[in-house]
Amino acid sequence: MRCSKRFCRYAKRVERSRNPASSPAPPSAPSARPWAAGCSTAPSGGPTIHFGVGTGAILGELRAAGGDVIGADWRTPLDEAWERIGFDRAIQGNLDPTVLLGPLDRIVAATDEVLERAGGRAGHIFNLGHGILPSTPVEHVQALARYVHQKTL
Questions:
Q1: Is pLDDT at 44 greater than 80 in this prediction?
Q2: Is residue 31 classed exposed, middle or buried when 0-12, 13-18 and 19+ CB atoms within 10 A define those classes?
């Protein structure tokens, strides 16, 4: 698959950027453009999601590089990220994964903040930051999923 090969090359560049000894400068969003151009939709026909961690300052560039959905990590407030991306794109906007280590009332409050910042607009994919931490109580993950479904479905 042409798209998969391009994605692999892109992923290798990203990985090299995390190791300063092998690459002096991290890739810019335009370096993702060749991948995005070859993959305007996923091989399955579904949408593509362009996501990067700590990319709040370059969300406009991520949009320009391509993707049907642009991901914003939890460090950038969702409404601000969506404004930078443009409301004509879907957004994957996230809850800080450490919130799930706290009490349920804090989880609900933080989830409400993300959902309020989405403003009920179509095109928001609720997501948990950069994944579930190993020490996260399973019950908290289940409670989060139930709560988001209650509020959005």
A1: no
A2: middle
Specify the pLDDT at position 67: 85
Q: Phi first, then psi: give them for residue 31, nearest 5 degrees.
A: -65, -20
For residue 127, pLDDT over 60 is answered with yes
Q: What is the pLDDT of residue 8?
A: 53
Dist. CA 123–CA 138, nearest whole Å: 27
- Strand 49-50 relative to strand 69-72, pairing: parallel
On whether the CB atoms of residues 92 and 114 are closer than 8 A, the answer is: no
- Give, in order, the Cα–Cα distances in Å from 92 to each of 10, 106, 130: 20, 21, 11
Is 50 strand, coil or helix? strand
DSSP string of 82-144? HHHH-TTSEEEEEE-GGGGGS-HHHHHHHHHHHHHHHTT-TTEEEEETT---TTS-HHHHHHH
129, 80, 116, 64: CA torsion to nearest 10: -70
